[in-house]
Amino acid sequence: MKNEGNGDYIAARDEGEWRLPPGLRQTLFMYQRRAWVRFGEPIPLFEHLHKTFGKIAHYRFMGNLIVFVNDPAWIQEILVNQSTSFIKERTLQRMKILLGEGLITSDDPIHMRQRRIAAPAFHRQRIAVYAGQIVASAAATRDAWVDGAEIDVAEAMMQLSLRIVARTLFDTEVTPEVESVADEVNTIMGLYNFLVAFPKLESVLHWPIPGVVKFRKSRARLDRIVEGMIASRRALPREELERRGDLLSELVAARDEEGEGGSDRMSDRQLRDETLTIFLAGYETVANALSWTWYLLTQNPDAARLMEEEVDAVLGEREARLEDFGALKYTEMVFAESMRLYPPAWAMGRQSTQAVDLGEYRIPPGAHFFFSQYVMHRSDEYWDAPLEFRPERHTPEAKAERPKFVYFPFGGGRRQCIGEGFAWMEGVLSLATIAQKWRLEFVPRFPVVVQAKITLRPKFPMMMVPHKRR
Predict the structure, then answer these.
(1) What DSSP string runs through 274-294?
(2) pTM, two decimal places
(3) What is the rounded average pLDDT of the residues 287-308?
(4) Per-residue pLDDT at 5
(5) Which of 18, 33, 42, 194 is the most buried (most CB within 10 A)?
(6) Count of the separate structural domains present in the chain
């Protein structure tokens, strides 16, 4: 343990049959006035634990044992080798009040069945169909910009991502109905910390508490919109569903050929949960990843120049196509390095259902385990000059030498993000399409601050000026 002997910390110790790692001597509430532990902002806490204790630490919060892990081998133990000893932890369990039993929040066997049904909709050949829609959406976004006119890139990337999700998930443009879905999701995102922290929230959802009432109304509006979309798809013959080709139609038509009884379709409730889950994942994560990428490119002009040279060489004046995705290798490395420094999914968690052994430590059932992509991706133990933006870290050779779970922006194990392939294609093709025409200049009107909600958002607007390249 680093800082051995500090009265605020305790060394690893035995508690009966359990051996706990080092950690904080007092409960987390006792540290809330410290600069590194601000209520509702876990990243400073995680960074402090990593700096102080290294690979593993523990603390207690509201009577719960929390174990924070920074070792890639132990993260692999949790996500892969001992995965059957874990379920989703409390934070994501709490999000069931919005997402129900969607792929993000559900546990086995529900998760296995839902993933099996949804998998064909995310097959590489299936998502390839969406390349043209991604490029068309990105081209429409860039063509609306004016040379020298200041824009909020974070808002622009949200609108671009919303347009792409509307086309690929709902087979529509950004209608008022789709805008309403985005508005209600954003309202609930603003309540995220309140919803997670409120004790026994599930049992008081009917109470007239202002934040609870606001959440309840937003969820009800979301349900009406999504359930209406599902009903309209249910009314279509199978041939029409297959012709439409959007993700919602794919999910409505999908069957579970391997499950007990065979040929089972998703219920309306399951479709509702998966639609909202895919909307949240597809809308929020890529939009934030693109926002951070543009910011990093403005701060690293050499990388921006190399990306522009590749885009010019591969695309010239024409629009990008699916086959260009594999040729835009440096652009992909830029996107990868952006997700190293600012991973949209900034932390993950699991709760143990039985005793867990990690090295010399034996941790009891019911413990909550957290690990943070944000912290791991910036660890100087695994990255040289970790705060520098270096796309070359993601060459095939560099990736082959890197231990697994040193870099894991899309999670890992059986629950690795089902939409990862789609996200890479959306990010790379969007960057290339915009970079064909524009070079962005950052305007430091607002501070650059991360906001750790469900995803890692910029806390303030990101003002930039586009300058025409051609």
Answers:
(1) HHHHHHHIIIIIHHHHHHHHH
(2) 0.88
(3) 98
(4) 44
(5) 42
(6) 1
